[in-house]
Amino acid sequence: MADDRLTDDRPATDPHTPATAAARALADERVDHRFKALPPDAEGRTVGELAAERRNLFDGGFTTPVLALSAESVEHNLALMETYAQRHGLAFAPHGKTCMAPQLFARQLEHGAWGITAAVPHQARVYRAHGIARIFLANELVDPAALRWLAAELDADPEFRFACYVDSPRGVELMDAALRAAGARRPVDVVIELGAGEGARTGARTEADCREVAAAVAATTTLRLVGVAGYEGEVPEADHTKVTAWLRRLVALTATFDAEGRFAGVDEIVVSAGGSAWFDAVAEVFAEIPDLSAPVLKLLRSGAYVSHDDGHYRHLTPFNRVPEEGALHPAFRLWAQVVSRPTPHQAFANAGKRDAAYDLDLPQAQVVRSARDGAERPATGVTVTGLSDQHAWLATESADALEVGDWVGMGLSHPCTSFDKWQLIPLVEADGTVVDFIRTFF
Ligand SMILES: Cc1ncc(COP(=O)(O)O)c(C=O)c1O
């Protein structure tokens, strides 16, 4: 970030110093037509120069639609999850696929995160290009080109720490063959993925299947088994009972593998689970992990928490069950302008599927900002009923609810599919001052 919240006071030995430096360097990029909504008259300035102007989102030359990320809410969410993880003895590798924003990764690391989680090789490449020292890839990695790249990264940087899933003997075979062909010198750390039950997504389905995969890993010299992981977010028809039962299977499997000597020689045993819907259950069950033959890295991977939302995660957040531990704040507001008002009950704003998450819920009209005097009022009686590519369909209860030119501020549902529609997102303080811009790499 361009402002002083990204401090340079990390010691040179801190593994996250390069991530902070890479995030700061993004301020040197030029602002131009590639970035939706940025002021046309800012063309050619660097991002840092534009941020230093501290323009106002509403009259600073931004064009609609424009997605705003609340500076205060993001800071609040970062601090809250840092405290939560500390309180429950969890290490944290926030899932970076949510935001794909190196500046937010740097803030997460500054807020105590161990590293950043990825889903696919491209994400890991983005992370490495931005100084991320520890990557947990929550997927099996069987692509030879990606494994060749990984082997080169690991060999070039002894400090780079990486682990990924394995869930099949065939996957192990493919990884081993690709790493041998690449001449990899350092073994790749892997964790066995236990599927979250029948009908769940990836992951070996039974403990016996996991044992087979572990045996396949042990038979290679290119892979090293360091732990066990999975994703409770995919437990079918999840509820507290089913999620904790599955998490207990994960913990029991870890303890059994350890007793069988399958982690012999590792400095740290990794046990990982946890998105943004069940981290309370993860904290509860991971607290039961017994002493093992090496220290345990209990790795939580929530990603959506960073912006939180006004829909899906607002309903699912564990803080609804444990309000005494805090509350996340929704950080996104999408501003669109009314461009057509053909009937008293219909209006159209200029934001659509290109701009707003729509895979889980439609946006929610929250506030209206008058084009006449900038006065804001609640969007009472205004409902988003549909999205076209570039239009929001609005139903209005009364003829005076909206007029052409008004700005409509909308809450969104699903952080992952909100971030990915914007490459440079204004970071905005409560009074409308734009203090920075968050660059994303999808
Ligand atoms: C394997 C895995 N881990 C962690 C997460 C992060 O969960 P959330 O997006 O709820 O924060 C996801 C999200 O899809 C995931 O697939």
TrEMBL record:
One of its GO terms (molecular function) is lyase activity. Residues 331-429 form the D-serine dehydratase-like domain. Residues 1-21 are annotated as: Disordered. Residues 1-13 have a biased composition (Basic and acidic residues). InterPro entries: Ala_racemase_N (IPR001608), D-amino_acid_metab_enzyme (IPR051466), D-ser_dehydrat-like_dom (IPR026956), D-ser_dehydrat-like_sf (IPR042208), PLP-binding_barrel (IPR029066). Belongs to the DSD1 family. Keywords: Lyase. Coiled coil: none annotated. This is Amino acid deaminase. The keyword Metal-binding does not apply.
